Amino acid sequence: MMTLPASVTTGTWTLDASHSEIGFTVRHAGISKVRGQFKDATATLEVGETLTDSKVTATIQTASFDSGDVNRDGHVKGEDFFDVEKFPEITFVSRHVKANGNSFDLVGDLTIKGVTKEVSIETEFNGVAVDPFGNTRAGVSGETTISRKDFGLTWNAVLEAGGVLVSDKVVINLELAFIAPAAA
Q1: Which pLDDT tens digit goes with each residue over 107-128?
Q2: For 71, which DSSP code?
Q3: Contact 117, 144 (CB under 8 A)
Q4: Buried b vs exposed e over 7-31: b needs ≥16 C-beta within 10 Å?
Q5: Which of 25, 118, 116, 111 lies closest to 62 in space, CA to CA?
Q6: Strand, helix or coil at 101?
Q7: With contact defined as beta carbons under 8 Å apart, do 9 and 22 qualify?
Q8: Do 121 and 109 contact (CB within 8 A), yes or no?
Q9: Is the per-residue pLDDT at 167 higher than 80?
Q10: Domain 11-177 superfamily per CATH
């Protein structure tokens, strides 16, 4: 049985989106990495008596994708990639948590473009702090690598010198802050 630090109280913790980042990195033309992030997400962390009793759910609005390039953002939001009109959300629902040395593997169902696949997110608990406003916060970092093709994100272009424009491998990076439930 995995126990939680005493400073992590049971109950529903909510994502502090303004102090969190949900991003990803994908190799472009085989020579550089392009980064993007989602600006609109909600999530809850249901903390149980142990880690195995805890659960995470998250919803990301695909239209909030931002890579810092308006033309690329339009393409990624379009039918070739996220198709935000037809698939406005990406969701994650955890199934279980397991210890992995000093980190934890958060295993759950990731749904992108209507396709659900099990993923394992290697997470690191960054601690708990009370902010100047009296809110108790917990920080978590996470990372996983997915195949975008597994989720129906198959658009690509062949390069003249060989290879493709967008790699299949996508690294998802999470820097999350959760706020504890209000004291009763």
Answers
A1: 999 999 999 999 999 999 888 8
A2: H
A3: no
A4: ebeeeebebbbeebebebbbbeeee
A5: 111
A6: coil
A7: no
A8: no
A9: no
A10: Lipid/polyisoprenoid-binding, YceI-like (2.40.128.110)
